[in-house]
Amino acid sequence: xxxxxSAAAVLxxxxxxxxxxxxxxxxxxxxxxxxxEGVDVxxxxxxxxxxxxxxxxxxxxxxTLTLKIGDQTLDAPLSSFGVxxxxxxxxxxxxQVGRTGNVVKRYKEQKDLQHNGLNYTLSRTANEExxxxxxxxxxxxxxQEAKNASLTRENGEFTFVPGEExxxxxxxxxxxxxxxxxxxxxxxxxNFLELxxxxxxxxxxxxxxxxxxxxxxxFTTSFSTSSADRSKNVNSGAKHVNGTVxxxxxxxxxxxxxxxxxxxxxxxxxxxxxxxxxxxxxxxxICQVSTTLxxxxxxxxxxxxxxxxxxxxxxxxxxxxxxxxxxxxxDFKFKNSTEYPIYIEGYTTxxxxxxxxxxxxxxxxxxxxxxxxxxxxxxxxPNTILRDDAGQGLGYKSVSAGKTGYVAELYKIVKVxxxxxxxxxxxxxTYKGSDRVVTYGTAGDPTLSENLRAAIAAQDEALADAxxxxxxxxxxxxxxxx
Length: 482
Hints:
Layout lengths: L1 H24 L8 E3 L2 E2 L5 H15 L3 E6 L2 E6 L6 E3 L1 H9 L6 H13 L2 E3 L2 E3 L2 H10 L12 E5 L2 E5 L4 E4 L1 H14 L7 E3 L2 E4 L5 H4 L4 E9 L5 H14 L2 E3 L4 E3 H5 L10 E6 L2 E6 L3 H15 L2 E4 L26 E3 L6 E7 L4 E8 L7 E13 L3 E10 L3 E4 L4 E12 L2 E13 L4 E8 L2 H12 L3 H18 L4
Parallel strand pairs: 1-6, 3-11, 23-27
Antiparallel strand pairs: 1-2, 3-4, 5-7, 8-9, 10-12, 13-21, 14-20, 15-19, 16-17, 18-19, 20-21, 22-25, 24-27, 25-26
Helix pairs in contact: 5-6, 8-10, 11-12
Protein backbone atom coordinates (compact mmCIF):
# COMPACT_ATOMS: atom_id res chain seq x y z
CA UNK A 1 0.00 0.00 0.00
CA UNK A 2 2.82 2.31 0.86
CA UNK A 3 4.47 1.56 -2.48
CA UNK A 4 1.22 2.38 -4.33
CA UNK A 5 0.93 5.77 -2.70
CA SER A 6 4.53 6.46 -3.48
CA ALA A 7 4.01 5.62 -7.15
CA ALA A 8 0.93 7.85 -7.35
CA ALA A 9 2.81 10.67 -5.77
CA VAL A 10 5.55 10.33 -8.35
CA LEU A 11 3.03 10.41 -11.22
CA UNK A 12 1.32 13.49 -9.86
CA UNK A 13 4.64 15.18 -9.41
CA UNK A 14 5.63 14.38 -12.98
CA UNK A 15 2.27 15.72 -14.24
CA UNK A 16 2.67 18.90 -12.25
CA UNK A 17 6.19 19.30 -13.50
CA UNK A 18 4.99 18.78 -17.07
CA UNK A 19 2.22 21.33 -16.73
CA UNK A 20 4.49 23.68 -14.89
CA UNK A 21 7.12 23.51 -17.56
CA UNK A 22 4.47 24.14 -20.26
CA UNK A 23 3.13 27.14 -18.43
CA UNK A 24 6.52 28.52 -17.58
CA UNK A 25 7.84 28.00 -21.09
CA UNK A 26 5.09 30.07 -22.68
CA UNK A 27 2.91 31.55 -19.99
CA UNK A 28 2.01 34.58 -22.17
CA UNK A 29 1.35 32.79 -25.46
CA UNK A 30 -1.66 30.92 -26.82
CA UNK A 31 -1.45 27.14 -26.82
CA UNK A 32 -1.18 25.17 -30.02
CA UNK A 33 -4.47 24.13 -31.63
CA UNK A 34 -6.39 27.36 -31.00
CA UNK A 35 -7.85 29.38 -33.88
CA UNK A 36 -10.02 32.48 -33.97
CA GLU A 37 -12.38 32.71 -36.95
CA GLY A 38 -10.08 30.15 -38.61
CA VAL A 39 -6.95 32.25 -38.00
CA ASP A 40 -4.24 30.12 -36.33
CA VAL A 41 -3.04 32.03 -33.27
CA UNK A 42 -0.93 29.19 -31.79
CA UNK A 43 2.15 30.46 -29.98
CA UNK A 44 1.12 34.10 -30.27
CA UNK A 45 1.19 36.69 -27.53
CA UNK A 46 -1.89 38.80 -26.91
CA UNK A 47 -0.57 41.67 -29.04
CA UNK A 48 0.43 39.32 -31.85
CA UNK A 49 -2.99 37.70 -31.84
CA UNK A 50 -4.69 41.10 -31.85
CA UNK A 51 -2.58 42.17 -34.84
CA UNK A 52 -3.38 38.94 -36.67
CA UNK A 53 -7.08 39.50 -36.13
CA UNK A 54 -6.84 43.14 -37.22
CA UNK A 55 -5.26 41.97 -40.48
CA UNK A 56 -7.98 39.35 -40.84
CA UNK A 57 -10.69 41.95 -40.32
CA UNK A 58 -9.10 44.29 -42.88
CA UNK A 59 -9.00 41.48 -45.43
CA UNK A 60 -12.56 40.56 -44.55
CA UNK A 61 -13.59 44.12 -45.44
CA UNK A 62 -12.68 43.29 -49.03
CA UNK A 63 -15.10 40.35 -49.05
CA THR A 64 -18.52 40.77 -50.64
CA LEU A 65 -22.06 39.85 -49.77
CA THR A 66 -24.04 38.86 -52.84
CA LEU A 67 -27.46 40.49 -52.71
CA LYS A 68 -30.29 39.22 -54.89
CA ILE A 69 -32.84 41.86 -55.88
CA GLY A 70 -35.56 40.33 -58.00
CA ASP A 71 -33.76 38.73 -60.93
CA GLN A 72 -30.64 40.90 -60.45
CA THR A 73 -27.60 40.27 -58.24
CA LEU A 74 -25.27 42.78 -56.63
CA ASP A 75 -21.90 42.10 -54.95
CA ALA A 76 -21.79 44.46 -51.98
CA PRO A 77 -18.39 44.99 -50.25
CA LEU A 78 -18.46 44.53 -46.49
CA SER A 79 -16.66 47.85 -46.15
CA SER A 80 -19.93 49.49 -47.19
CA PHE A 81 -21.65 48.19 -44.06
CA GLY A 82 -19.20 49.43 -41.39
CA VAL A 83 -18.72 45.96 -39.88
CA UNK A 84 -16.72 45.99 -36.61
CA UNK A 85 -15.50 43.14 -34.40
CA UNK A 86 -15.08 42.63 -30.67
CA UNK A 87 -11.89 40.54 -30.33
CA UNK A 88 -10.05 41.49 -27.13
CA UNK A 89 -12.18 39.26 -24.91
CA UNK A 90 -11.74 36.38 -27.35
CA UNK A 91 -7.94 36.72 -27.30
CA UNK A 92 -7.96 36.86 -23.49
CA UNK A 93 -10.06 33.69 -23.37
CA UNK A 94 -7.72 31.96 -25.82
CA UNK A 95 -4.72 32.80 -23.62
CA GLN A 96 -6.42 31.22 -20.61
CA VAL A 97 -7.15 27.85 -22.23
CA GLY A 98 -5.05 25.16 -20.49
CA ARG A 99 -3.73 27.67 -17.97
CA THR A 100 -6.49 28.32 -15.46
CA GLY A 101 -8.29 26.12 -13.01
CA ASN A 102 -6.98 23.03 -11.19
CA VAL A 103 -4.38 20.74 -12.61
CA VAL A 104 -6.89 18.23 -13.91
CA LYS A 105 -8.86 20.93 -15.77
CA ARG A 106 -5.71 22.30 -17.37
CA TYR A 107 -4.50 18.84 -18.34
CA LYS A 108 -7.86 17.99 -19.92
CA GLU A 109 -7.98 21.26 -21.91
CA GLN A 110 -4.48 20.68 -23.26
CA LYS A 111 -5.32 17.13 -24.31
CA ASP A 112 -8.54 18.35 -25.98
CA LEU A 113 -6.51 20.88 -27.95
CA GLN A 114 -4.18 18.15 -29.16
CA HIS A 115 -7.04 16.00 -30.40
CA ASN A 116 -9.81 18.43 -31.43
CA GLY A 117 -8.44 21.94 -31.48
CA LEU A 118 -10.56 24.95 -30.52
CA ASN A 119 -11.98 27.73 -32.72
CA TYR A 120 -13.35 30.97 -31.36
CA THR A 121 -15.81 33.17 -33.23
CA LEU A 122 -15.83 36.94 -33.08
CA SER A 123 -18.73 39.14 -32.14
CA ARG A 124 -19.60 41.01 -35.36
CA THR A 125 -21.60 44.27 -35.46
CA ALA A 126 -22.87 46.08 -38.57
CA ASN A 127 -23.36 49.85 -38.70
CA GLU A 128 -27.09 50.12 -39.34
CA GLU A 129 -26.85 53.70 -40.61
CA UNK A 130 -24.27 52.71 -43.23
CA UNK A 131 -26.42 49.75 -44.26
CA UNK A 132 -29.40 52.10 -44.60
CA UNK A 133 -27.41 54.48 -46.83
CA UNK A 134 -26.16 51.62 -49.01
CA UNK A 135 -29.62 50.17 -49.49
CA UNK A 136 -31.17 53.57 -50.18
CA UNK A 137 -28.44 54.81 -52.54
CA UNK A 138 -27.41 51.60 -54.29
CA UNK A 139 -29.97 48.84 -53.94
CA UNK A 140 -32.94 51.02 -54.87
CA UNK A 141 -31.31 51.64 -58.26
CA UNK A 142 -32.43 48.11 -59.07
CA UNK A 143 -36.08 49.04 -58.62
CA GLN A 144 -38.10 48.68 -61.79
CA GLU A 145 -41.30 50.53 -62.50
CA ALA A 146 -44.16 48.46 -63.77
CA LYS A 147 -44.84 48.99 -67.45
CA ASN A 148 -48.53 49.53 -67.97
CA ALA A 149 -50.30 47.80 -70.79
CA SER A 150 -50.19 50.03 -73.85
CA LEU A 151 -50.96 50.28 -77.54
CA THR A 152 -49.17 50.76 -80.81
CA ARG A 153 -50.83 52.21 -83.88
CA GLU A 154 -49.87 51.32 -87.45
CA ASN A 155 -51.81 51.81 -90.65
CA GLY A 156 -54.77 53.10 -88.67
CA GLU A 157 -55.02 49.99 -86.48
CA PHE A 158 -54.32 49.60 -82.75
CA THR A 159 -52.32 46.65 -81.39
CA PHE A 160 -52.40 45.70 -77.70
CA VAL A 161 -49.05 45.51 -75.85
CA PRO A 162 -49.21 43.62 -72.50
CA GLY A 163 -47.82 45.27 -69.39
CA GLU A 164 -44.86 44.11 -67.31
CA GLU A 165 -44.62 43.74 -63.54
CA UNK A 166 -42.31 46.06 -61.63
CA UNK A 167 -40.49 45.68 -58.34
CA UNK A 168 -39.62 47.96 -55.46
CA UNK A 169 -37.18 47.03 -52.73
CA UNK A 170 -38.47 47.17 -49.16
CA UNK A 171 -35.78 49.40 -47.66
CA UNK A 172 -36.48 48.90 -43.95
CA UNK A 173 -36.86 45.12 -44.21
CA UNK A 174 -33.74 44.89 -46.37
CA UNK A 175 -31.69 46.84 -43.83
CA UNK A 176 -32.81 44.51 -41.04
CA UNK A 177 -32.09 41.43 -43.17
CA UNK A 178 -28.56 42.58 -44.06
CA UNK A 179 -27.68 43.50 -40.46
CA UNK A 180 -28.99 40.16 -39.18
CA UNK A 181 -27.07 38.21 -41.81
CA UNK A 182 -23.79 40.02 -41.16
CA UNK A 183 -24.03 39.62 -37.40
CA UNK A 184 -25.32 36.06 -37.23
CA UNK A 185 -25.00 34.11 -40.49
CA UNK A 186 -21.73 35.18 -42.12
CA UNK A 187 -19.56 32.25 -43.25
CA UNK A 188 -16.09 31.81 -44.69
CA UNK A 189 -17.61 30.53 -47.93
CA UNK A 190 -20.03 32.22 -50.32
CA ASN A 191 -22.46 34.60 -48.69
CA PHE A 192 -25.78 35.16 -50.44
CA LEU A 193 -28.88 37.04 -49.30
CA GLU A 194 -32.13 37.67 -51.14
CA LEU A 195 -33.61 41.04 -50.27
CA UNK A 196 -37.36 41.49 -49.85
CA UNK A 197 -39.02 43.26 -52.77
CA UNK A 198 -42.58 44.26 -53.44
CA UNK A 199 -43.98 43.36 -56.83
CA UNK A 200 -46.00 46.14 -58.46
CA UNK A 201 -48.68 45.18 -60.91
CA UNK A 202 -49.04 46.97 -64.24
CA UNK A 203 -52.18 48.91 -64.98
CA UNK A 204 -54.49 48.15 -67.85
CA UNK A 205 -55.78 45.19 -69.76
CA UNK A 206 -56.82 44.35 -73.28
CA UNK A 207 -60.41 44.99 -72.22
CA UNK A 208 -59.56 48.46 -70.87
CA UNK A 209 -57.66 49.50 -73.97
CA UNK A 210 -60.31 48.17 -76.32
CA UNK A 211 -62.23 51.38 -75.54
CA UNK A 212 -59.54 53.43 -77.28
CA UNK A 213 -60.95 53.81 -80.78
CA UNK A 214 -62.58 57.26 -81.11
CA UNK A 215 -60.77 60.45 -82.18
CA UNK A 216 -61.37 62.94 -79.36
CA UNK A 217 -59.21 65.84 -80.55
CA UNK A 218 -56.75 66.68 -83.31
CA PHE A 219 -54.59 69.64 -84.31
CA THR A 220 -51.96 70.44 -86.93
CA THR A 221 -49.42 73.26 -87.29
CA SER A 222 -46.87 74.02 -89.99
CA PHE A 223 -43.13 74.44 -89.58
CA SER A 224 -42.45 74.92 -93.29
CA THR A 225 -40.22 77.96 -92.72
CA SER A 226 -38.08 76.24 -90.09
CA SER A 227 -34.38 75.57 -90.50
CA ALA A 228 -33.10 72.00 -90.76
CA ASP A 229 -32.08 71.96 -87.10
CA ARG A 230 -35.38 73.37 -85.85
CA SER A 231 -37.22 70.85 -88.04
CA LYS A 232 -35.15 68.08 -86.47
CA ASN A 233 -36.24 69.21 -83.02
CA VAL A 234 -39.91 69.25 -83.99
CA ASN A 235 -39.60 65.77 -85.48
CA SER A 236 -37.85 64.44 -82.37
CA GLY A 237 -40.43 65.97 -80.04
CA ALA A 238 -43.30 64.37 -81.95
CA LYS A 239 -41.59 60.97 -81.78
CA HIS A 240 -41.07 61.22 -78.02
CA VAL A 241 -44.75 61.98 -77.42
CA ASN A 242 -46.14 59.51 -79.96
CA GLY A 243 -47.53 56.32 -78.45
CA THR A 244 -48.21 57.74 -74.99
CA VAL A 245 -51.07 56.01 -73.16
CA UNK A 246 -52.66 57.80 -70.21
CA UNK A 247 -54.98 56.00 -67.85
CA UNK A 248 -57.84 57.82 -66.09
CA UNK A 249 -56.49 60.35 -63.61
CA UNK A 250 -52.90 60.25 -64.89
CA UNK A 251 -51.11 63.53 -65.69
CA UNK A 252 -48.92 64.07 -68.75
CA UNK A 253 -45.85 66.33 -68.50
CA UNK A 254 -44.47 67.63 -71.77
CA UNK A 255 -41.07 68.42 -70.26
CA UNK A 256 -40.65 64.99 -68.67
CA UNK A 257 -41.67 63.31 -71.92
CA UNK A 258 -39.39 65.14 -74.36
CA UNK A 259 -36.35 65.90 -72.14
CA UNK A 260 -33.39 65.78 -71.93
CA UNK A 261 -32.50 68.20 -74.69
CA UNK A 262 -29.29 66.57 -75.88
CA UNK A 263 -27.88 65.44 -79.20
CA UNK A 264 -28.15 61.85 -77.99
CA UNK A 265 -31.88 62.36 -77.49
CA UNK A 266 -32.33 63.65 -81.03
CA UNK A 267 -32.00 67.43 -80.62
CA UNK A 268 -29.93 70.19 -82.22
CA UNK A 269 -29.24 73.89 -81.62
CA UNK A 270 -31.97 76.17 -82.95
CA UNK A 271 -33.67 79.47 -82.16
CA UNK A 272 -35.80 79.88 -79.04
CA UNK A 273 -37.07 82.72 -76.84
CA UNK A 274 -35.04 83.78 -73.82
CA UNK A 275 -35.80 86.95 -71.87
CA UNK A 276 -37.56 88.50 -74.83
CA UNK A 277 -34.81 87.68 -77.31
CA UNK A 278 -34.23 84.93 -79.86
CA UNK A 279 -31.18 82.83 -78.97
CA UNK A 280 -29.90 79.45 -80.09
CA UNK A 281 -30.52 76.66 -77.61
CA UNK A 282 -30.54 72.88 -77.68
CA UNK A 283 -34.03 71.76 -78.67
CA UNK A 284 -35.16 75.14 -80.00
CA UNK A 285 -38.60 74.73 -81.57
CA ILE A 286 -39.86 72.17 -79.05
CA CYS A 287 -42.52 74.67 -78.00
CA GLN A 288 -44.25 74.15 -81.34
CA VAL A 289 -44.63 70.51 -80.35
CA SER A 290 -46.18 71.41 -76.98
CA THR A 291 -48.38 74.06 -78.62
CA THR A 292 -49.74 71.62 -81.20
CA LEU A 293 -50.49 69.07 -78.49
CA UNK A 294 -52.11 71.78 -76.32
CA UNK A 295 -54.61 72.54 -79.05
CA UNK A 296 -55.40 68.85 -79.56
CA UNK A 297 -55.96 68.56 -75.78
CA UNK A 298 -58.33 71.54 -75.85
CA UNK A 299 -60.36 69.90 -78.59
CA UNK A 300 -60.44 66.62 -76.67
CA UNK A 301 -61.66 68.71 -73.69
CA UNK A 302 -59.17 67.19 -71.28
CA UNK A 303 -58.20 68.98 -68.07
CA UNK A 304 -55.25 71.35 -68.52
CA UNK A 305 -53.13 71.32 -65.36
CA UNK A 306 -50.36 73.75 -66.36
CA UNK A 307 -49.83 75.99 -69.37
CA UNK A 308 -47.79 79.14 -70.00
CA UNK A 309 -47.69 81.48 -73.01
CA UNK A 310 -44.45 82.38 -74.72
CA UNK A 311 -42.72 85.58 -73.67
CA UNK A 312 -43.34 86.88 -77.21
CA UNK A 313 -45.82 85.93 -79.92
CA UNK A 314 -45.35 82.93 -82.21
CA UNK A 315 -46.39 82.72 -85.84
CA UNK A 316 -47.83 79.19 -86.03
CA UNK A 317 -50.97 79.70 -83.89
CA UNK A 318 -53.24 82.56 -82.86
CA UNK A 319 -52.67 84.54 -79.67
CA UNK A 320 -53.40 82.54 -76.49
CA UNK A 321 -53.30 79.23 -78.40
CA UNK A 322 -49.64 78.55 -77.58
CA UNK A 323 -48.06 76.51 -74.78
CA UNK A 324 -44.41 77.15 -73.94
CA UNK A 325 -41.99 74.91 -72.09
CA UNK A 326 -38.71 76.16 -70.63
CA UNK A 327 -36.49 74.17 -68.29
CA UNK A 328 -38.42 72.98 -65.28
CA UNK A 329 -40.17 76.30 -64.59
CA UNK A 330 -42.49 76.28 -67.62
CA ASP A 331 -44.22 73.04 -68.50
CA PHE A 332 -47.33 71.94 -70.29
CA LYS A 333 -49.30 69.39 -68.27
CA PHE A 334 -52.74 67.91 -68.69
CA LYS A 335 -54.75 65.17 -67.03
CA ASN A 336 -56.75 62.35 -68.53
CA SER A 337 -59.99 63.54 -67.02
CA THR A 338 -62.07 60.89 -68.80
CA GLU A 339 -63.09 57.53 -67.39
CA TYR A 340 -61.20 55.61 -70.07
CA PRO A 341 -57.59 55.34 -71.30
CA ILE A 342 -56.43 57.72 -74.02
CA TYR A 343 -53.75 57.30 -76.69
CA ILE A 344 -51.67 60.13 -78.17
CA GLU A 345 -50.56 59.83 -81.76
CA GLY A 346 -47.96 62.33 -82.96
CA TYR A 347 -46.23 62.57 -86.31
CA THR A 348 -44.69 64.95 -88.84
CA THR A 349 -45.02 64.95 -92.61
CA UNK A 350 -42.65 65.58 -95.50
CA UNK A 351 -44.26 68.97 -96.13
CA UNK A 352 -43.26 70.01 -92.60
CA UNK A 353 -46.49 69.74 -90.67
CA UNK A 354 -46.88 68.31 -87.18
CA UNK A 355 -50.11 66.64 -86.04
CA UNK A 356 -51.36 65.26 -82.75
CA UNK A 357 -54.41 63.01 -82.53
CA UNK A 358 -55.90 61.99 -79.19
CA UNK A 359 -57.91 58.77 -79.15
CA UNK A 360 -60.18 57.41 -76.45
CA UNK A 361 -63.84 56.66 -75.91
CA UNK A 362 -66.19 59.38 -77.10
CA UNK A 363 -68.83 60.17 -74.48
CA UNK A 364 -69.83 63.67 -75.65
CA UNK A 365 -73.16 64.24 -77.36
CA UNK A 366 -72.97 63.94 -81.12
CA UNK A 367 -75.09 67.07 -81.60
CA UNK A 368 -72.62 69.13 -79.55
CA UNK A 369 -69.66 70.94 -81.14
CA UNK A 370 -66.87 73.20 -79.92
CA UNK A 371 -64.64 75.83 -81.50
CA UNK A 372 -62.09 78.32 -80.20
CA UNK A 373 -61.76 82.07 -80.56
CA UNK A 374 -58.68 84.19 -79.88
CA UNK A 375 -59.63 87.68 -78.68
CA UNK A 376 -57.20 90.62 -78.59
CA UNK A 377 -57.66 92.50 -75.31
CA UNK A 378 -54.86 95.05 -75.51
CA UNK A 379 -52.05 96.06 -77.82
CA UNK A 380 -48.89 97.80 -76.59
CA UNK A 381 -46.90 99.58 -79.27
CA PRO A 382 -43.11 99.54 -78.84
CA ASN A 383 -41.32 102.55 -77.40
CA THR A 384 -38.49 104.16 -79.34
CA ILE A 385 -35.15 104.42 -77.57
CA LEU A 386 -32.34 106.61 -78.97
CA ARG A 387 -28.74 105.63 -78.24
CA ASP A 388 -25.36 107.06 -79.21
CA ASP A 389 -22.36 105.09 -80.38
CA ALA A 390 -19.08 106.98 -80.03
CA GLY A 391 -17.39 104.30 -82.08
CA GLN A 392 -19.33 105.27 -85.20
CA GLY A 393 -18.95 108.49 -87.15
CA LEU A 394 -21.52 111.22 -87.58
CA GLY A 395 -24.10 110.22 -90.17
CA TYR A 396 -24.29 106.61 -88.98
CA LYS A 397 -27.80 105.42 -88.07
CA SER A 398 -28.97 101.90 -87.21
CA VAL A 399 -32.57 100.92 -86.45
CA SER A 400 -33.58 97.77 -84.55
CA ALA A 401 -37.29 97.29 -85.11
CA GLY A 402 -39.33 96.85 -81.96
CA LYS A 403 -42.08 94.37 -81.35
CA THR A 404 -45.66 95.06 -80.33
CA GLY A 405 -46.84 93.57 -77.05
CA TYR A 406 -50.26 91.95 -76.69
CA VAL A 407 -52.77 90.80 -74.13
CA ALA A 408 -55.17 88.17 -75.45
CA GLU A 409 -57.79 85.73 -74.23
CA LEU A 410 -58.88 82.37 -75.61
CA TYR A 411 -62.53 81.31 -75.51
CA LYS A 412 -64.22 77.98 -76.12
CA ILE A 413 -67.51 78.28 -77.99
CA VAL A 414 -69.98 75.47 -77.33
CA LYS A 415 -72.85 74.81 -79.71
CA VAL A 416 -75.69 72.29 -79.53
CA UNK A 417 -77.53 71.62 -82.78
CA UNK A 418 -75.68 74.59 -84.24
CA UNK A 419 -76.86 77.02 -81.56
CA UNK A 420 -74.34 78.58 -79.18
CA UNK A 421 -75.02 77.53 -75.60
CA UNK A 422 -71.83 78.59 -73.85
CA UNK A 423 -68.72 80.74 -74.19
CA UNK A 424 -65.97 79.79 -71.75
CA UNK A 425 -62.73 81.68 -71.16
CA UNK A 426 -59.84 79.22 -71.38
CA UNK A 427 -56.87 81.48 -70.63
CA UNK A 428 -55.49 84.99 -70.63
CA UNK A 429 -52.02 85.53 -72.09
CA THR A 430 -49.60 88.44 -72.01
CA TYR A 431 -46.86 88.77 -74.62
CA LYS A 432 -44.04 91.19 -74.05
CA GLY A 433 -43.14 93.75 -76.65
CA SER A 434 -39.65 95.02 -77.32
CA ASP A 435 -38.36 98.55 -77.76
CA ARG A 436 -37.50 100.03 -81.13
CA VAL A 437 -33.85 101.06 -80.76
CA VAL A 438 -32.24 103.74 -82.95
CA THR A 439 -28.46 104.10 -82.67
CA TYR A 440 -26.55 107.15 -83.97
CA GLY A 441 -22.83 107.55 -84.52
CA THR A 442 -21.45 110.55 -82.62
CA ALA A 443 -17.75 110.60 -83.52
CA GLY A 444 -16.66 113.67 -85.51
CA ASP A 445 -17.16 117.45 -85.46
CA PRO A 446 -17.46 118.48 -81.76
CA THR A 447 -20.27 120.97 -82.32
CA LEU A 448 -22.35 118.63 -84.47
CA SER A 449 -21.66 115.77 -82.08
CA GLU A 450 -22.75 117.86 -79.11
CA ASN A 451 -25.98 118.85 -80.86
CA LEU A 452 -26.69 115.22 -81.77
CA ARG A 453 -26.02 114.00 -78.23
CA ALA A 454 -28.41 116.63 -76.92
CA ALA A 455 -31.13 115.35 -79.27
CA ILE A 456 -30.43 111.76 -78.16
CA ALA A 457 -30.58 112.80 -74.50
CA ALA A 458 -33.95 114.42 -75.18
CA GLN A 459 -35.04 111.24 -77.01
CA ASP A 460 -36.12 113.45 -79.93
CA GLU A 461 -35.77 111.33 -83.07
CA ALA A 462 -36.80 114.11 -85.47
CA LEU A 463 -34.19 116.46 -84.04
CA ALA A 464 -31.58 113.68 -84.07
CA ASP A 465 -32.33 112.97 -87.73
CA ALA A 466 -32.01 116.68 -88.50
CA UNK A 467 -28.58 116.70 -86.88
CA UNK A 468 -27.58 113.65 -88.90
CA UNK A 469 -28.74 115.41 -92.06
CA UNK A 470 -26.70 118.47 -91.08
CA UNK A 471 -23.66 116.30 -90.46
CA UNK A 472 -24.06 114.61 -93.83
CA UNK A 473 -24.44 117.99 -95.55
CA UNK A 474 -21.33 119.31 -93.83
CA UNK A 475 -19.39 116.22 -94.84
CA UNK A 476 -20.54 116.61 -98.45
CA UNK A 477 -19.56 120.29 -98.51
CA UNK A 478 -16.13 119.53 -97.12
CA UNK A 479 -15.48 116.78 -99.63
CA UNK A 480 -13.13 117.74 -102.50
CA UNK A 481 -14.79 118.32 -105.84
CA UNK A 482 -14.64 115.38 -108.24
